[in-house]
Specification:
Layout (H helix, E strand, L loop, with lengths): L16 E6 L3 H5 L1 H11 L2 E8 L4 H4 L8 H8 L10 E7 L2 H11 L4 E6 L4 H7 L2 H8 L4 E5 L22
Helix pairs in contact: 5-7
Length: about 170
């Protein structure tokens, strides 16, 4: 007898919801075509999520926070090219990584497609990485799209110590 709680998730479950978190930056927008491509190929709904940073409580006087009109317009502009992809826009206020993982869980998303800014060194140590947090904590698969620098060169061919015969 198999204990149901120890079974692995259903690998044949269809992908019906793809989550695309965006901070509306140019690098985040570079990942949108990939999110749309996944949603279209899988016949899934595309959920566009914008997470506004939490305000200083005292600056709002405890009043509800509203997004500025420019942010709302920019968010509404994030739409699939294909009319075959249903889209829903969702906004939340909070810490981006935590909110992305929570929304993915609450909306029963099957896949998260997001950009990674590729920060390294001191900047990464100081600010951390939202993508890294999501990869570590999300309960569904995460695909990251890295922004490539225009001057980036092809990777060099790796040094081969010994070529192995093909495995049949």
């Amino acid at each position: 007898m198999v204990n149901e709680s120890s079974q692995s998730p259903d690998v044949h479950r269809p992908v019906t919801q793809v989550l695309f978190p965006t901070d509306l930056s140019s690098s985040s927008q570079l990942a949108f075509p990939e999110a749309e491509r996944f949603a279209k190929a899988l016949g899934a709904r595309l959920i566009v999520l914008y997470v506004a940073p939490p305000p200083d409580y005292w600056s709002t006087g405890g009043e509800p926070v509203e997004l500025d009109p420019e942010t709302v317009a920019a968010l509404r502009a994030v739409r699939p090219v294909s009319s075959d992809v249903p889209v829903e826009h969702v906004t939340h206020i909070g810490l981006a990584g935590e909110v992305i993982c929570w929304v993915a869980q609450e909306l029963d998303c099957d896949l998260i497609v997001m950009s990674t800014h590729g920060h390294s060194g001191l900047k990464h140590l100081l600010f951390g990485s939202v993508a890294e947090y999501v990869i570590r904590h999300a309960r569904c698969p995460v695909t990251t799209v890295r922004q490539h620098a225009a001057d980036e060169k092809r990777l060099p061919e790796p040094q081969v110590y010994q070529r192995m015969p093909p495995i049949i």
